[in-house]
């Protein structure tokens, strides 16, 4: 089921880049990969946010829901949820069919970030500027648990007898549990806390399990909900994997030595776009606008 | 949807009991409530364990799956999962229809225990003897996350086209997310870490949200999967709530002053058994064997 990314990247180059990263300045590479200012992505992000705001209210007990509201909406942005909507539309589905799954994916991404930041303060030094901790670690741990649960709840509640979509939603739930669980995000985070990611051969593995897995899941789930064929699902899964790993690389590498980074990104970009060739060019225009040409 | 337990318990008595509890010795009250040695419960527990052992293997990467295996099978026993199977059988369902949900509930109960034990070591003093921590806090945090995800995966994968059970499974997923999330287990745990449970008026609230919610969920999910009517589901939910709160009380109160504890337990027992009167006596025999007569 899991897509495997076959890219010939020199791991030593990447490990070096990572260890010398300067997280306080935005990476130019990130900006070259994608444009969230593009009208298509802006509209998708706006709809996901509306859906989240409708469902995540500050209500009693405030001690529970205030931290959740804050942590959901202050999470670092991830293009994974938007990719879910774009994949659904690419295969002929309607945006509404994928919004709950996209919102669920944002919740899970945000919860994973919270739990990851609890693991070690040292490790945060090699990451993009960490979010300052507003709540106690205990509250953040429990809020993360609540957010994981609420993600699955949003998804399960999106069952609609008129759409007869129960089987698709169950399949999407399995996809998300695998992307977020011990074979996916958790596996990547394990390797990070064991510091294995400092070893170059594990660096790509961690990127594939974390950001790669999240984006692969987003694209595959959108495709499933939009009624895609198995081949379409797997192509979009690989597209998402490339996009996610690109984002991971570009968020972590330093600004200097951009030439090597650019090479890696270029290779991933080419692999990603190759997957889109399978689809009708006109239809793939929106999802391929992920990249600035 | 959520059942509300209306029992006239003197909260001051309970708060006093709790603060003076002696967690190192087993409570005689617990033993008076239920008998897991009863052949019916023993067979249910054995089947749930077999299902878990089939699905939770020690496999590569060992750094991920060894802690999960250990923490799933060393978790303190909870009757909640068994109640799920018993409720399914009571309403005419087959045991197989509820085993995956029961196993999922055990995973979630075990994950909640792990995360709760990470929150504060101080608080553990008022609890039953804490499990010694074998793994680092980071590994335990992530293993808990992996177990929550795997619980939902087991559940979603139990979809069976031959049984046409997708809608029931989605409903059960919503039940579990509510029992484990910010309106359930997490809410109870929040109140505990904020030490509100030391205030007598919050003590019953915490018991209802945690152990009460878990057992109410178990019984309601088993009923749903067994094809129960709405009235049967709600009666079994209230039965589970009473059983769970009884277990919480009896686990936390001290051995001395047993008379007051016995009164509370008696009242809850009577409420629980009242719910079972709705069902055919012969059919309810198994589930009512929860109590030693």
UniProtKB/TrEMBL annotation, chains A, B:
<dbReference type="GO" id="GO:0008299">
    <property type="term" value="P:isoprenoid biosynthetic process"/>
</dbReference>
<dbReference type="InterPro" id="IPR000092">
    <property type="entry name" value="Polyprenyl_synt"/>
</dbReference>
<keyword id="KW-0808">Transferase</keyword>
<dbReference type="GO" id="GO:0004659">
    <property type="term" value="F:prenyltransferase activity"/>
</dbReference>
<keyword id="KW-0479">Metal-binding</keyword>
<dbReference type="GO" id="GO:0046872">
    <property type="term" value="F:metal ion binding"/>
</dbReference>
<protein>
    <submittedName>
        <fullName>Uncharacterized protein</fullName>
    </submittedName>
</protein>
<comment type="similarity">
    <text>Belongs to the FPP/GGPP synthase family.</text>
</comment>
<dbReference type="InterPro" id="IPR008949">
    <property type="entry name" value="Isoprenoid_synthase_dom_sf"/>
</dbReference>
<dbReference type="Pfam" id="PF00348">
    <property type="entry name" value="polyprenyl_synt"/>
</dbReference>
<keyword id="KW-0460">Magnesium</keyword>
């Amino acid at each position: 089921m899991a897509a495997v990314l076959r890219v010939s990247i020199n791991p030593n180059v990447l490990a070096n880049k990572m260890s010398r990263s300067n997280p306080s300045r935005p990476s130019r590479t990130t900006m070259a990969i994608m444009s969230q200012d593009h009208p298509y992505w802006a509209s998708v992000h706006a709809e996901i946010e509306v859906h989240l705001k409708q469902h995540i209210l500050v209500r009693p007990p405030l001690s529970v829901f205030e931290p959740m509201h804050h942590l959901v909406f202050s999470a670092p942005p991830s293009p994974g949820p938007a990719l879910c909507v774009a994949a659904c539309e690419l295969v002929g589905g309607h945006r509404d069919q994928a919004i709950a799954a996209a919102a669920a994916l944002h919740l899970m991404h945000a919860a994973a970030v919270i739990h990851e930041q609890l693991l070690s303060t040292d490790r945060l030094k090699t990451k993009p500027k960490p979010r300052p901790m507003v709540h106690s670690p205990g509250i953040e741990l429990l809020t993360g648990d609540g957010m994981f649960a609420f993600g699955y709840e949003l998804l399960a509640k999106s069952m609609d007898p008129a759409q007869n979509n129960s089987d698709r939603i169950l399949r999407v739930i399995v996809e998300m549990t695998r992307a977020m669980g011990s074979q996916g995000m958790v596996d990547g985070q394990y390797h990070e806390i064991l510091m294995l990611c400092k070893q170059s051969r594990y660096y790509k593995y961690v990127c594939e399990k974390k950001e790669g897995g999240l984006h692969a899941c987003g694209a595959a789930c959108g495709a499933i909900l939009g009624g895609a064929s198995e081949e379409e699902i797997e192509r979009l899964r690989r597209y998402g994997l490339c996009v996610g790993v690109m984002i991971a690389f570009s968020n972590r590498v330093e600004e200097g030595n951009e030439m090597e980074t650019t090479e890696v990104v270029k290779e991933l970009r080419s692999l990603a776009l190759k997957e889109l060739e399978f689809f009708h060019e006109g239809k793939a225009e929106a999802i391929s606008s992920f990249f600035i040409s």
